[in-house]
Amino acid sequence: MRPLQPPLTLLSSFQSYASYFVRCLKASFAYRAATITNLLTAAVSYSITIMIWRQVYSQNPNLLISSDQMYVYLLLAGCVNYAMIMNIEFRISQRIRNGLVATDLLKPVDFQIAQGIQAISDGFFNGSMGIMVFLCGFFVFGTRMLPPDFPCFCLFMISFLLGFTVMYGVCFVFVQGAFYTYSGYGIMASRNALQLTFSGVSAPLAFYPPLLKTIADWLPFKHIIYSPISIYMGWAKNADAYQLILQQACWAVFLFVLGKLIMKHALKQLEVQGG
Amino acid sequence: MENALHVENLAKSYKRRVRKPGLAGAFQSMFSAKTEEFHAVKGISFSIKRGEKVGLIGENGAGKSTTLKMLTGIIVPTGGQLEVLGLVPWQKRRQLALNIGVVFGQRPQLLWDIPVRETFKLLKDMYHIPNGVFEITYPEAVKRLDLEPLLSTPVRLLSLGQRMRCDLAASLLHAPAVAFLDEPTIGLDLTVKEQVREYIRDMQNRFGITLLITTHDLKDITEVCDRLLLLDKGKLLFDGSLKAFEKRFANESRIVAELHQPATPASLKKLSAEIKRYGGAITLSEGHRLILEYREAGAAPALTQILLKRQKVVDLTLEKTDIDTIVTRIYRKPAGEKMKP
Fold it and tell me: For labelling alongside A108, which of A136, A196, B49, B284 has CA 20 to 30 A away?
């Protein structure tokens, strides 16, 4: 009789995840039409935000930052936000609802990491649209769209990746609610509302009233968009940038562990009814 | 021989919210947290040795799928103990997953949006299937289950039957030590069902896979398994070989007659009284068709003679009760009498 296959090592798991990533990326092309429609809708929404700010600047040109800086910020926020669009809440809640989550749990891979791999493949696909938005911005604003120096760009890349991890952590924690409620809609809507308010996607947090800014400082959402862009634009430099990155890393680890703990509890009371 | 599975007093209950009917009830349930406990599996015990082929049957809602979900580690039992390949499934779910294959007939494990071939390649990487094994199992599955024309098709475009065949291949590609097959022939036509059963049998023979199959098609059991577990409302009613099951319950035989003209109620009454002496009973009289059933060995000649004397018979056959009939009868019996032969 064959011996029992031992658990996968970290290295062998990596091979599984790499293979899974390739398939997820292929699968995301299956819905390219729907995804592009979503992204175009988001583009309309960003255009409206920019138009609102144009109106604000036309009435009061002496705000905290120049109008050009504001437009560059908003375009960059749009680019980063595109890459952060992940469908995991919809996907997981649907699979919990129709019981298909059972087949995910039967795979010899970590559910949380596997969903993260799917999120990365979403990010790759959606991020390519973000790059297009960036190129459009570059066409209009030229070198003002670029970071002040190369170290800024390197720190931004680290911050961006950490921001992605924070975003995934937030989504994963929120979607655990679907194990209890069997519906992802309310969960997605509340996470989205919080993110729109506190991530800085519509305006830099410096423009927020003190109370909202304080709340934003205590939540993870600003690390999804505002922190990476602050580093990219050179608003947070040296020690400030390192501090933001450290905060992001702490949030990423905290949310990952929190997600794992909640899921452990959620799985204990999971019901997959029916044949 | 070593146990592949050991289950002792396994139980699973769920809390369900109690909702009153109607719109008002739905509204009320938003504010009331009244729940009731539903016992899906009520303390069952059994062991399965390595390489055994076991069928698990029961009516809808008997607890078959819940048992399978506990054995695979998807859901956590509320009572009892279980071990699969020496592991507690829900605690060592990922390690266990490497060593088992699972088909949930109504929940495909294939990736929905990409071609079937891609899922197979992914499974090869995910389960770390050695080339030596994959080179046997993959072409075998493709050939035996006739998958070649489906390999380039995205899973969402497959019919239920096609998807089932691919799903079965996916679950056995890594030649698992234990395979849990929940309704593996659902949605298949008769020819493909045969093909699937033959494939399962051959894979089992070649790799010594321990099989636990749940199904409503008893041919899956009679053609693949040699042991039967019968669940009813969460309880294990029978655990034994197919022969033992038939011996216990299939002691009824029947005479099926095609009459020249439908029997009148009066003639049926007379016939019924006469055959009663030989342990016979009329179980069906529908148009020209008449069925007599009896238990006593050697009663057939006497019963046939009486029948031929009382009715003008066009055609006549003697049949032994098949497993489908036995199981259907058990299902129909009231709770306390199900195990009475």
Answer: B49
Residue of A37 and B208 predicted with greater confidence: B208
**Mean pLDDT, range B245-268, rounded to an integer:** 83
Q: Tell me which amino acid residue B18 is.
A: V
Q: What is the pLDDT of residues B108-121, one digit of tens each?
A: 888 888 899 999 99
Residue B246 pLDDT grade (very low, low, confident, very high; cuts 50, 70, 90): confident
Tell me if chain A has a CB within 8 Å of the CB of B131. Answer: no
- Give A104 to chain B, closest Cα distance, Å: 8
Query: Would the pTM count as exceeding 0.90?
Result: no
Whether residue A26 and residue B114 make contact (CB cut-off 8 A), yes or no, is: yes
Q: Torsions phi, psi of A200, nearest 5?
A: 85, 20
Q: Pick from A72, A231, A250: which is nearest to A156 by CA?
A: A231
Q: How far is CA A143 from CA A159, B25, B279, B308, in A?
A: 21, 63, 100, 105
Interface of B with A in 44-63 (CB under 8 A): 50-51, 60
Comma-separated ranges of CATH 3.30.70.1150 domains in chain B: 252-320
Question: Across the interface, do A275 and B125 touch by the CB < 8 Å criterion?
Answer: no
| Test the A interface: residue of B30, B50, B75, B164 with most A CBs within 10 Å | B75
What superfamily in CATH does domain B252-320 come from? ACT-like. Chain A, domain 2 (3.30.70.1150)
CA–centroid distance for B180 within its chain:
12
**Which residue intervals of chain B bear CATH 3.40.50.300?**
3-7+47-247
Rounded Cα distance, A121 and A110, in Å: 17
Q: Are A72 and A141 in contact (CB under 8 A)?
A: yes
Measured distance CA(B46)–CA(B230) in Å, rounded: 11
Report how far residue B252's alpha carbon sits from residue B274's, in angstroms, rounded to the nearest whole number.
Answer: 18
Q: What is the pLDDT of residues A14-67, one digit of tens each?
A: 889 999 999 888 887 777 777 778 777 877 877 888 888 889 888 888 888 888
DSSP of B257-307 = EEESSPPPHHHHHHHHHHHHTTTEEEEEEETTEEEEEE-STT-HHHHHHHH
**Closest Cα of chain A to B184: distance in Å?**
12
In degrees, rounded to 5, the angle at the alpha carbon of residue B145 between the alpha carbons of residues B142 and B148 is 40
Residue B156's closest chain A neighbor by CA? A30
Looking at domain B3-7+47-247, its CATH architecture is 3-Layer(aba) Sandwich (3.40)
CA atoms within 13 A on the CB side of B4: 25
Which residue has better confidence, B195 or B338? B195
| Amino acid at residue number A256 | F
Q: Which residue of B has its CA nearest to A4?
A: B99
Q: Given CA atoms A124, A128, A129, A131 in this order, what sign does their dihedral have?
A: positive
In the 8-state DSSP scheme, what is residue A255?
H
Nearest-Cα distance to chain A for B98, in Å, is 6
Per-residue pLDDT at B53? 96
List B235's β-bridge partners, or say none: B232
Closest in B90, B109, B114 to A103, CB measured: B109
* pLDDT of the residue at A39: 72
The residue written with tokens 């010594």 in the block is B208
Q: Which of A114, A99, A22 is nearest to B108 (CA)?
A: A99
